[in-house]
Amino acid sequence: MTTSLPVIAVTITPIAFPDPPLLNSAGVHQPWALRAIVQVHCGDELVGLGETYGDAPHLALLGRAAGALAGLDVFDLAGLRSRIAAAVGVVDAPDRHGLTGGSSAEKTLARIVSPFEVALLDLQGQVTERPVHALLGGKVRETVPFSAYLFYKWAGHPGAEPDEYGEALDPAGIVAQARRMIDRYGFRSIKLKGGVFPPEQEINAIRALRVAFPDMPLRLDPNCAWTVDTSVKVAEETAGLLEYLEDPTAGLAGMAEVAALAPMPLATNMCVVRFADLPESVARGSVGIVLADHHYWGGLTASAHLATICRTWGLGLSMHSNSHLGISLAAMTHLAAATPNLTYAVDTHMPWQLGVDVVAEPLHFIDGSVTVPDAPGLGVSLDQDALARLHENYLTCGIRERDDTAYMRLFEPGYTKRRPRW
Ligand code: GKR
Ligand code: MG
Fold this sequence. Notes:
Helix content: 25-40%
CATH topology of the largest domain: TIM Barrel
Number of helices: 14
Strand order of the largest sheet: 7-8-9-10-11-12-13
Order of helices and strands: EEEEEHHHHEEHEHEHEHEHEHHEHEEHH
CATH superfamily of the largest domain: Enolase-like C-terminal domain
CATH architecture of the largest domain: Alpha-Beta Barrel
Structural class: alpha/beta
Bound molecules: D-glucarate, magnesium ion
Number of domains: 2
CATH class of the largest domain: Alpha Beta
């Protein structure tokens, strides 16, 4: 006879934390990044944690989902999905920046389910005294390698002091940024966010990184800023330099054209972003590597299913990130630990948050990797004071939706988001 462990209450707290002026193909990061912290309560002191996007339309849907969860058994993940689907209905809530590809009702629902699923797995782990990776099938590695995620950037937000990373607008600036990040965290592979400057300039940055870091795998991700022709040219010019080229151009058809001619594999977090995208991608040969992201693939168990599909079809698997804090880092680490075919270093924006976090004792990078936690659940707990401070930031910062293009236009009024741009 099993006893159920019912959800008593759910709290969703929007937060904002400082974010540097990182450039991308949509514009530039605003001074504050938004997230939402989900707490699922099921008894004295028993709280499961999740972290997700904090944009207003997403928050509204999270609220609808949360209202449907009272009484749900924390072990009933199928019940979680069906209750949320019923509460939310068929709704497509696109994000403004479009940096995680096309939007759909399937992806919107997956995005809403995700933080609650993570929180339930955290609770399951606490109750059974097992780490989340054990609930996902068991860890296959003791440490999870992450990559140095480089961005072109301004020295600081206009009108503010430069941040500790300073300006990076040319190859020398990118190499200096890489050195700083690698000296501090020990990363052993590098990703450059491109799509900001004309491709020749970004190729030169890759060449400079290769000279400065002869043994490190390098990736370039212009977020669909290029035409098929430009993508093919860049791929040819970077032959032998890149472990993969990420989302050079938009769409499964365009990516397939590039993939047929590129000397390196193509990766994506923009054209394969839901299960319905996989059959066509496989049929066309659009990508060689899929970047999982539990925040929009429907949680950790759904991401594990994605990993199995990738293995079945001979696709490589990597992991995507957006600006995030320590609950997401823990969830990503557990998932990576339990995913045998995740063979690439995981993306993380964490260094850009410059030590700000919402968890009491964050996981951290040693030699570029995070040691997989074996404590029950996710293995992290909330710092309530930090949560209150970051929530206060949210209340006063004035930003309610991430909009890199609108923020860029404040300084370059003629700026438009064009994909492709080159
Ligand atoms: O933070 O500017 C950014 C990134 O461009 C992010 O939004 C992307 O979703 O990192 C992501 C990517 O790999 O495309
Ligand atoms: Mg990407």
